[in-house]
Write a structure and sequence with these properties.
The chain is an alpha/beta fold. 29% of the residues lie in helices and 24% in strands. The protein has 3 domains: 18-236, Rossmann fold, CATH 3.40.50; 244-288 and 397-464 and 559-649, 3-Layer(bba) Sandwich (FAD/NAD(P)-binding domain); 334-393 and 467-554, D-Amino Acid Oxidase, subunit A, domain 2 (D-Amino Acid Oxidase, Chain A, domain 2, 2-Layer Sandwich).
Length: 652
């Protein structure tokens, strides 16, 4: 997807900010909010149509200055009968820089709402940014990039369309039939649409897309506006793999695993009105893979901005937004992360950044001297700086997520079997006793829940990789990083005078004992990272444990393609299409959120939000191509394609 090109705005006429690139104003001189209320809320019969609904979804083509969003937010907030959740999706190819957006709302009639929007404004990356307001009851899904791209990538059911954009003569791509024909795939059965434009191509395009179109009195000096209702001859069915995973009205869930994934799922499901019971075989939360004393989180980038880079960027930004709310509850949070670049020089790094168009509030290319100054280490390479990355204590992060979720927790609950009985999933112990049951079950445990996945999907479970990792602690270190550093292993300063470093990687190794050889490997890696000479000596605990180095052993569960498993399990041996994950039907009430490898801190928030949307039928805060990339059914689809490709190439 092309890099984001921010808008250029001429504010010389305060009543009507002007877009030189399109030769048009952003809104009527008679008032942006008044125009939004008349054209978009009024023609879509809002607030009346959202009243008493559990959720209402709006899609806007053209966020502009954000006035339509603010007017809708105000109407929703003032309505005592408002829907429980309002999701406002907006697409913008040329978003405003933060300073320009602040200028646009300097004299806003809605100063408190405008200020909240400014505080939540994301880095201008080509992503779907999920911004949360009103304790999660109002969601803004801001899609930065071309509208044609996003209308293919969105996974949502839309109740009202705001068709906004610059004049069709200057901005024809926002109004052509190709774009308008994409609306039916997203339209709910009773969807409506409205636009200030009554151009013939707009009305005819909506009609061809299955909308009944009327012309009504326009706003201010506009003679008319377009009002439409979706009334197709044939309703487009949802693909089997896009149907909500839980029955309509589900309010309870059982989650297996009280680590990062499980706690995040409990938090995200609570935002969709689903309360969870979290089960874990250990005696407390975050006792297994999520139990390290500190862990990293950050985005990534690669030259082609491929699937891994885009997913990691979306996940990193979601984590950053979550930590803005939860950070004060953590005992410590180290902000900013350096990742060493061992292959490119600084000039090549900067050239790559310029080509990708990634903004400095997401990632920066630093020279070796700049990286040394920030880290306090004698680094031997340039580095990428991720301002929104950093390090935190995973167990405290888990505790905060569980606290905000309001979930019930049950520890020492060793789940041996899962059974679907009378519309409920039961988690049973080895004797067959029911530990908990609900219409929705989420498998979110790491390697300790692998036996449950083996029963449900043995072919998928057989693909997963278990990695043993050991980290090491230096209790006293004269040299410590000022911020987390990764790239040659990693190093995190602790809250005293020491640091944690690591980590080793051993596949299929089940040894739970701390090993001196792994400890030595970690210290050697730390010495190389910090360019230390001589190498630091091993640190040991008290004399009664002199034979063991200080550290921790854990196991990561990963997939062969190094992306997580998020979503429903496909039904075995069905007769439908098997060449795309979206066409595979799923087992009712069952979802996975697991196999996060070493990226649990940075992935948990986004993965949980995606799963909660899949469960409830809410708009999914991730584009379809990335959703397919983390779908548990992807390996079955790949196997199906390979078998058919092999059959097609075999001699008769």
């Amino acid at each position: 997807m092309p890099a984001i090109s921010p808008a250029v705005v001429d504010f010389s006429d305060p009543a009507a900010p002007f877009a030189p690139a399109f030769g048009d104003v952003y809104h009527s001189r008679a008032g942006a909010l008044a125009q939004a209320r008349h054209v978009f809320l009024g023609a879509n019969q809002l607030p009346g149509r959202w009243r008493s609904r559990p959720r209402f979804v709006i899609l806007e083509t053209g966020f502009g200055l954000g006035n339509n969003f603010l007017a809708t937010w105000e109407a929703w907030a003032q309505d005592p009968e408002r829907c429980a959740q309002l999701v406002f999706i907006s697409i913008e190819k040329h978003p405003l820089r933060l300073e320009d957006l602040a200028h646009a709302h300097r004299q806003s009639p809605l100063p408190e709402l405008a200020q909240q929007l400014l505080q939540a404004w994301p880095p201008l990356t080509a992503n779907l940014h999920r911004l949360s307001f009103a304790q999660g009851q109002l969601q803004l899904l801001l899609c930065l990039g071309d509208a044609r791209h996003w209308l293919r990538e969105l996974v949502a059911e839309v109740d009202a369309f705001y068709l906004d954009g610059f004049n069709p003569r200057q901005n024809p791509e926002m109004w052509d039939r190709y774009l308008l024909k994409a609306l039916p795939r997203l339209a709910a059965p009773d969807a409506t649409a409205a636009s200030w434009s009554v151009a013939p191509d707009v009305r005819e395009g909506l009609g061809a897309a299955g909308f009944n179109v009327q012309r009504q009195r326009g706003f201010a000096n506009k003679g008319g506006m377009c009002v439409a209702r979706y009334a197709p001859h044939h309703q487009m069915p949802k693909p089997a793999g896009r149907v909500p995973l839980a029955p309509t009205g589900t309010q309870e869930a059982v989650i297996i695993g009280a680590g990062l994934a499980g706690a995040a799922c409990a938090w995200a499901l609570a935002q969709q009105g689903i309360q969870s019971t979290v089960l874990d075989r250990r005696d407390g939360p975050a006792q297994a893979s999520s139990g390290n004393p500190g862990g990293l989180f950050h985005g990534t980038l690669n030259p082609d901005d491929g699937v891994h880079a885009r997913f990691n960027r979306a996940a990193a930004l979601a984590t950053e937004r979550l930590l803005q709310a939860l950070g004060p509850e953590l005992p410590w949070l180290q902000q900013g992360l350096l990742r060493l670049e061992t292959r490119l020089d600084h000039a090549a790094m900067q050239s790559q950044l310029d080509r990708l168009g990634l903004p400095s509030d997401y990632v920066q290319a630093l020279t070796q001297d700049q990286a040394r100054a920030l880290s306090g280490l004698e680094l031997q390479y340039p580095a990428w700086l991720y301002p929104g990355g950093g390090a935190l204590p995973p167990a405290d992060f888990v505790a905060a997520l569980l606290r905000h979720s309001g979930a019930k927790t049950r520890f020492g609950a060793d789940v041996a079997h899962l059974q679907w009985i009378d519309g409920l999933w039961q988690a049973q112990d080895a004797e067959g006793r029911c530990l908990a049951q609900a219409p929705l079950l989420v498998l979110a445990g790491g390697h300790e829940a692998l036996h449950l996945l083996q029963d449900l999907a043995p072919d998928l479970a057989a693909l997963l990789i278990q990695q043993r990792g050991q980290i090491s602690h230096l209790a006293h270190s004269a040299i410590r990083p000022r911020m987390p550093v990764a790239g040659l292993g990693y190093a995190i300063a602790d809250t005293d005078q020491g640091l944690w470093c690591g980590a080793t990687h051993h596949i299929g190794d089940s040894d739970a004992t701390l090993r001196a050889s792994d400890h030595a490997a970690n210290l050697a890696q730390w010495a190389e990272l910090a360019h230390l000479s001589p190498k630091p000596a091993c640190e040991y605990p008290q004399q009664d444990q002199q034979d063991q180095p200080v550290g921790r052993v854990g196991w990561r569960l990963a997939t062969p393609d190094r992306l997580p498993l998020v979503g429903g399990l496909p039904i075995r041996a069905h007769g439908g299409r098997q060449d795309q994950v979206r066409f595979l039907p799923r087992q009712a009430g069952l979802a996975l959120c697991m196999a996060m490898g070493s990226r649990g801190i940075g992935w948990a928030a986004l993965c949980a939000q995606v799963l909660a949307a899949q469960v409830s039928g809410a708009p999914i805060p991730l584009e379809a191509s990335l959703l397919d990339a983390i779908d548990p059914a992807r390996f079955a689809v790949r196997a199906h394609r390979q078998s058919h490709d092999g059959a097609a190439s075999s001699p008769p």
